[in-house]
């Protein structure tokens, strides 16, 4: 599904500022991956570079989605291919309702992928069914995108967008931060349902907490711009107990 190969990235404005220093990562179909690591290790940068954020420049390596390089594609084109990137700070779009935005986005993606577009009535049925994934009330659909949403509602809305848009691969950056326990369970439950539908999910998270509710197939640790360790869910538990210090020696070993 996604292959990140020896990815080196610097800041567009300042090429001496190297942030990713050779990231390797392979995400298979229907797999849930967790990327963990201390603040500043490059997790969000990796998510943004996969999304095609213009602030960063890839100086070496490649990102393949379904076997093809996506480096030359702009963020919209990546989304049309089936990538979904939820950001750490979701934006507000006052004046545009959730429903309108989602139908436009859904149909653009469907058209691009040769799937059937939905008219307003068909979309109404579809979106109402998808509300169940995150236990969302129908009133939500007619509110402006993210405007006046609480932090928890924004995160929940992100998962809802993911449930509606049906992406092949989703990167969720800190979707768990700032959620109370009930919202966390709903979000985790939504992610589990989506992964069951054979979609791949990458959760970028600083904390182990959400992994109490979601069983990742693979856990990776980033330190200083590299993936220094990969394992299964036991790795996340070990990090919870022991922190990241025991891994710091690995960061200085060049891969
Ligand atoms: P994480 O998400 O793991 O906390 P980030 O990817 O946000 O880490 O940041 C990794 C490092 O790259 C940090 O030192 C951060 O300050 C730096 N960085 C990220 N984006 C930029 C940018 N646009 N300009 C300058 N430095 C950046
Ligand atoms: Mg699975
Ligand atoms: Mg981050």
Please summarize the sheet with the most strands.
6 strands, mixed
Q: Helical amount among residues, as a percent range? A: 25-40%
Order of helices and strands: EEEHEEHEEHHEHEHEEEHH
Question: What class would the helix/strand composition place it in?
Answer: alpha/beta
**Distance between the amino and carboxyl termini:** 23 Å
Q: What oligomeric state is this? A: single chain
Task: Name every ligand kind in the structure.
Answer: adenosine-5'-diphosphate, magnesium ion
Q: Return the CATH topology.
A: Rossmann fold
Record the SSE blueprint.
Layout lengths: L1 E10 L2 E14 L4 E5 L6 H9 L4 E10 L2 E2 L5 H7 L1 E4 L6 E5 H15 L7 H11 L13 E2 L5 H15 L3 E5 L7 H16 L3 E5 L13 E6 L2 E6 L1 H10 L5 H5 L3
Parallel strand pairs: 3-10, 3-11, 6-9, 9-10
Antiparallel strand pairs: 1-2, 1-4, 4-5, 7-8, 11-12
Bound molecules: adenosine-5'-diphosphate and magnesium ion (2 copies).
Question: What features would you describe in this structure?
Answer:
A six-stranded mixed beta sheet has the order 6-9-10-3-11-12, sandwiched between helices. A four-stranded antiparallel beta sheet has the order 2-1-4-5. The two termini are 23 Å apart. The longest helix is centred in the last third of the chain and has 16 residues, at 181-196. Helices cover 35% and strands 29% of the residues. The chain has 255 residues and is α/β, with parallel strands linked by helices. It has one domain (2-252): Rossmann fold. Helix 5 (151-165) runs parallel beside helix 6. It has helices spanning 43-51, 75-81, 98-112, 120-130, 151-165, 181-196, 233-242, 248-252, and strands at 2-11, 14-27, 32-36, 56-65, 68-69, 83-86, 93-97, 144-145, 169-173, 200-204, 218-223, 226-231. Helix 6 links the parallel strand 9 and strand 10. The model has no long low-confidence stretch (mean pLDDT 88). Bound molecules: adenosine-5'-diphosphate and magnesium ion (2 copies). Residues 30-31, 195 line the site of one magnesium ion.
């Amino acid at each position: 599904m996604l292959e990140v190969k020896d990815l080196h990235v610097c800041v567009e404005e300042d090429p001496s500022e190297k942030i990713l220093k050779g990231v390797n990562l392979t995400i298979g179909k229907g797999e849930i991956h967790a990327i963990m690591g201390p603040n500043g290790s490059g997790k969000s940068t990796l998510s943004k570079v996969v999304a095609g954020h213009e602030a960063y420049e890839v100086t070496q390596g490649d990102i393949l989605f379904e076997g093809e390089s996506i480096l030359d594609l702009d963020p919209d084109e990546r989304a049309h291919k089936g990538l979904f990137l939820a950001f750490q700070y979701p934006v507000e779009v006052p004046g545009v309702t959730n429903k309108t935005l989602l139908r436009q986005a859904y149909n653009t993606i469907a058209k691009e992928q040769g799937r059937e577009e939905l008219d307003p009535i068909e979309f109404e049925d579809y979106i109402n069914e998808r509300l169940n994934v995150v236990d969302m009330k129908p009133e939500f659909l007619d509110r402006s995108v993210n405007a006046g949403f609480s932090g928890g509602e924004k995160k929940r809305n992100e998962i809802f967008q993911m449930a509606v848009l049906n992406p092949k691969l989703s990167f969720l950056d800190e979707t768990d931060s700032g959620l109370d326990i009930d919202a966390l369970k709903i979000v985790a439950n939504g992610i589990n349902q989506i992964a069951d539908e054979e979609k791949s999910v990458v959760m970028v998270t600083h904390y182990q907490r959400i992994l109490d509710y979601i069983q990742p197939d693979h856990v990776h640790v980033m330190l200083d711009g590299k993936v220094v360790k990969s394992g299964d869910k036991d790795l996340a538990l070990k990090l919870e107990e022991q922190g990241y210090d025991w891994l710091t020696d690995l960061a200085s070993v060049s891969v």
